[in-house]
Amino acid sequence: MNIMVVRNDKLGDFITALPTLYVLKHHNPSNRIIALVAPLNRTLAESCEFIDEVIVDGGEEILELAFKIKQARIDASITLFSNTRVALAQWIARIPIRIAPATKIAQIFYNRRITQRRSRVEMAEFEYNLQLSKALFPDISLDFPQPLLPFSDDIFKAFCTEYEVSKPVVAFHPGFGGSSDANWTLSEYIDLVRIAQTYEQLDVVMTFGPDEERLYNEAKELLGESRVVLYRSVGSVVDFAALISSFKLFISTSTGTYHLASAVGCETFTFFADTRFASALRWKSIGAVQHHFMIPLNPQGRGEMFEKVKQALKNRLLTLV
After folding, report:
1. Structural domain span for residue 313
2. CB 17, CB 7: distance < 8 Å
3. Nearest to 257 by CA among 12, 82, 3
4. Residue 267: what are its φ and ψ, rounded to 5°?
5. Residues 193 and 239 in one domain
6. What is the pTM for the complete model shown?
7. Residues 172 and 312 occupy one common structural domain
């Protein structure tokens, strides 16, 4: 059976779809699994052994997208997050079985509509996604391995040589690209970095995306002469995933890089907004070892939480040295 899974939005959202893609493939290895993704997720999707084909949604007109989909000869589709455009394209492509959550006007174009009520946040996003696979295979196992995305340490070894890294790595990623509802300031991240610096048995790294040059320069100025490695990711998402898969701890807000770190097996310290919809309950990632912290909106609560984070970080670092 040719099965298309649609998750054509941001990096973190796509990673929440990976368990669904995995279980569909492993339910029956003869299934051909096709992922419809946004352009930024193409290389990551192509690196997954449980994805057989990738269709890139480049924002083209509905008929052009429908033609792309029709060429794949799809027997069934599972749309994890829908909109009218992608729903209509599948209807035009005449996919026999079209599964999606029963939300929004787009649901009229699907013939298996599943009531989920995600706004109640009764489970995590990746768990809602997995649940939809049962609409196609009621007896499917929803188990998936940890880590789901294993990598070799080749890129990490090259990184260690270039940056003279020889100890276990604790990484801080202060950016968030507008995809998170809560984060610490750069100065607060520097405070956390300085705590990690006191542990001489560890190497400390700050990572930045390719479009975070300003943040990189500000961090460089704040740190001055320091043994902290400042690393700007200039390769693909897959290259960055391979690198952080060998890190011991990844500290960031709830954004795509957090989901990536968790998926490749790196332990995470992650910051969430203190609201139900943006919480760890909804957006916890797919990895095995995660530590979640909710940042209150009010200044006093925020300050108190920051002190708790500092103490939790000290406690965790003690176990890594």
Report:
1. 154-320
2. yes
3. 12
4. -65, 140
5. yes
6. 0.94
7. yes
What separation in angstroms does the CA of 293 have from each of 67, 204, 275? 45, 21, 12
Q: How confident is the model at residue 155 (pLDDT cuts 50, 70, 90)?
A: very high
* Residues of the chain above pLDDT 90, percent: 89
Is residue 102 located within the same domain as residue 158?
no
Q: How far apart are CA 203 and CA 184, in angstroms?
A: 22
Decide the pairing of beta strands 112-114 and 32-37. Answer: unpaired
Answer yes or no: do 125 and 164 share one domain: no
| Residue/partner pairs of 258-263 with CB below 8 Å, 24 or more apart | 258/12, 258/173, 258/285, 259/11, 259/12, 259/15, 259/16, 259/285, 259/286, 260/11, 260/12, 260/15, 261/287, 262/15, 262/286, 262/287, 262/290, 263/15, 263/18, 263/147, 263/148, 263/149, 263/287
When divided into structural domains, the chain yields a total of 2
Bridge partners, 36 (sequence order): 6, 55
Mean residue pLDDT of the chain comes to: 95
Question: What DSSP designation does 201 have?
Answer: T
- Calpha distance 241→46 (Å, rounded): 13
Tokens of 56: 């890139």
**Is 196 found in the same domain as 123?**
no
CATH of the domain at 77: 3.40.50.2000
